[in-house]
Specification:
heterodimer; A: alpha/beta; four-stranded antiparallel beta sheet; 12 strands; 36% helix; B: mainly alpha; two-stranded antiparallel sheet; 15 helices; 2 strands
Chain lengths: 309, 364
């Protein structure tokens, strides 16, 4: 439903995206990854019409998003910016209610539909119990769920999120990503998120977009495109890709960068499994669910000398 | 790893959220035909109390003075029953009380709009240059021997020019809060310096007249000034009705606001423009009584316990404050009259301090 055509965007003098063509599949969870300053946030902000492109266009169901009335866009596409400003003293229900803005006018400020949408959104994001609490008194994880609830109250087909897991601990990161996954699977929403963690991207994404220096390097299902070669090309990092023991999705483990990091006990045994695991092609997700921890460590140790630079 | 979230989901479902029960906390819905407006219940209460206090203060202001008029006679005069005090109450005192109420309300409205756009409780017409622009123009008019009728329009023009300059400087980066305030402070200081120069080089007697104008007083003013201010507010009523609603989203950052389909920059320009228009008009009519614009929105906000100054309550608070300030200024050292501008600061300042202290104790 969202695509870009020859997109050029940036800030002031700096051009970040230069002629980007991208197709984002509908009813999928798309994750955009890439190194810092690669343009992934710029891309998300441009997709959400928060940033006006210099050239080219973002197409929402074939129509240029900049030419659609912003209220109409807000009914079809919601966006959660990176670390939004928490207004002082605003209650959770109030903030989630702001998500109904595109359906409201000053002479029609609230309807039954607004009530039920806010209700559904708060239940879905599991913040119904916090309805009367001021948002600025909540923990980071709770806040993030409240912001997501606000975007859910917008009742849109698509939801765009810019690093929704930053500043959250691991348990809360998983919680937020599980929520996004449920939205896609149970509600059929199109979800697009910028994430930092490659392994989380691989675990949750149906469609992975890897960016580098303002261009898309690869796009597709993570199990097909996420290889050690891709990680090296995109992040300039040597790594080993093994199947995740829990989901079978590709798991990116950085190569041994210093011999002192490896456990000497794990380094000594036979080199046979190391050779097999070091080759990224061999780590197909259809294979057994990963080696033992010792095997993994050996793989790292084994990969180190051959990838030295 | 997925077990906890599954548990939580089922917990939500089993809690049985009945659809349509979400009401915004502390709000009620007012429906008239196809009109539906959210109203804070506490705002209604505060507004009612402020209205009663305003009525009491007005009657008090009409009755105190020389001669003293009993409250009963004041009410009889007001109702048109005819008393020997009609001249004192209706012709001498009423115009000034009405002017105080209208001007106070206008300052309250202007302060609310400007503070919300600036996201700064300290922003008021005198922080963003409107007062200084009006002051400079009025000072030039008063010291150059121009006719008295010129002073008001000149001050209005001065205030608007200064405001336009501030908006133009601030708008270059989307009228971001900090830039707006900084541009205002810069313009205000420059204009203030110019005013001082004009005043120091003028005749002493003209300089003093200008000084009194700058402090702001209601003495010798009445229906004409009240009509100008009231007319402006009335004309802007549709805009103000929209503003009351638009202010709800003024605390959101620009990306979030755009995400929910707003145009934050044009919205800020409209709100700030309305605010400075009202501020310039009222300052031109009564001078720089603008401490009201700073304090009324903040006091009203704390009384309503809202996250932003409420427009209607701030207007009522401003009216009450200026009526009281004018009354005290008139009576405290009678027959010497103190300008209302001095008294608003003397009354409003300590009250704001009290609210700040109280708020701090509660939060700690």
């Amino acid at each position: 439903m969202l695509s870009t055509r020859d997109l050029v965007a940036g800030y002031d003098e700096r051009t970040v995206l230069d002629g980007l063509d991208l197709e984002l599949p509908a009813d999928a969870f798309t994750v955009i990854v890439g190194p810092n300053a690669c343009g992934k946030s710029t891309l998300l902000r441009t997709l959400a019409r928060l940033l006006v492109p210099r050239r080219g266009a973002v197409l929402l169901d074939g129509k240029a998003i900049q030419e659609l009335p912003t209220r109409e866009v807000a009914r079809r596409l919601a966006v959660l910016p990176q670390s939004p400003l928490v207004p002082e003293g605003v209650t959770v229900a109030d903030l989630v209610g702001r998500g109904r803005q595109p359906y409201q006018r000053w002479w029609r400020q609230w309807s039954e539909e607004d009530s039920s949408a806010v209700d559904r959104a708060m239940a879905l994001a599991d913040v119904a119990g916090l309805a009367d609490r001021p948002v600025d008194t909540l923990s980071g994880g709770q806040r993030q769920r409240v912001w997501i609830a606000m975007t859910l109250a917008q009742d849109t087909e698509a939801l765009l999120l810019d690093e929704p897991t930053t500043f959250l601990d691991l348990a809360h990161q998983v919680e937020v990503l599980d929520l996004l996954h449920r939205l896609r699977v149970e509600r059929g929403r199109t979800v697009v998120a910028v994430l930092h963690d490659l392994n989380q991207a691989a675990r949750y994404a149906d469609h992975l977009v890897a960016m580098r220096a303002g261009a898309v390097v690869a796009a597709g299902p993570p199990r097909e495109i996420l290889t050690a070669d891709l990680v090296r090309e995109v992040f300039g990092l040597d790594c080993v890709v093994v199947p995740c023991p829990v989901t079978g999705a590709p798991l990116v483990v950085p190569a041994l960068t210093s011999p002192t990091l490896a456990d000497p006990a794990a380094r000594t045994p036979e080199p046979a499994p190391a050779g097999a695991a070091a080759a990224p092609e061999a780590s197909s997700p259809t294979g057994s669910t990963g080696g033992t921890p010792a095997g993994g460590a050996t793989a790292l140790a084994g990969s180190y000398p051959s990838e030295g630079h | 790893m997925t077990a906890p979230s599954r548990e939580r989901t089922s917990a939500v479902e089993s809690r049985g959220v009945t659809p349509g029960i979400v009401r915004l906390p502390g709000r009620s819905l007012l429906r008239i035909g196809s009109l539906s407006v959210q109203i804070r219940r506490r705002s209604v209460l505060v507004a009612a109390v402020l209205l009663v206090l305003l009525a009491v203060a007005s009657v008090l202001s009409l009755s105190l003075g020389t001669p003293y008029v009993a409250a009963g006679d004041v009410l009889r005069s007001l109702s048109g029953a005819g008393t020997p005090y009609d001249l004192v109450v209706l012709d001498l005192r009423l115009p000034r009380v009405v002017l105080a109420a209208v001007a106070g309300a206008a300052f309250g409205v202007a302060g609310t709009l400007i503070q919300s756009v600036a996201r700064n409780p300290l922003a008021s017409p005198d922080v963003i240059g409107v007062t200084q622009g009006a002051g400079l123009a009025a000072t030039v008019a008063l010291t150059s021997g121009a006719a008295a009728v010129v002073v008001g329009p000149a001050a209005l023009a001065g205030g608007l020019v200064a405001a336009a300059l501030v908006l133009a400087l601030g708008a270059r980066h989307g009228l971001a809060a900090q830039r707006f305030v900084l541009a205002g402070v810069a313009v205000a200081f420059a204009l203030k310096a110019l005013t001082e120069i004009v005043m120091l080089t003028a005749e002493a007697i003209d300089g003093q007249r200008a000084q009194i104008w700058l402090i702001g007083t209601l003495a010798g003013k009445g229906w004409t000034e009240a009509a100008w201010i009231g007319g402006t507010l009335l004309l802007l009523l549709p805009v103000l009705a929209w503003a009351g609603w638009a202010l709800n989203s003024s605390a959101l950052d620009d990306d979030t606001a755009r995400g929910i389909g707003l145009r934050p920059v044009s919205r800020r320009i409209a709100l700030a423009g309305t605010g400075v228009l009202v501020a310039a008009m009222v300052t031109a009519q009564v001078g720089a009584v603008d401490f009201v614009a700073l304090v009324a929105p903040q006091v009203a906000r704390r009384l309503v316990r809202a996250e932003r100054p409420p427009l209607v309550c701030a207007a009522l608070m401003g009216a009450l404050l200026l009526v009281l300030a004018d009354l005290v200024g008139r009576r405290l050292f009678a027959p010497t009259q103190l300008p209302a501008g001095v008294l608003t600061a003397a009354i409003g300042g300590p009250y704001l301090m009290y609210l700040l202290l109280r708020g701090r104790r509660r939060s700690s």
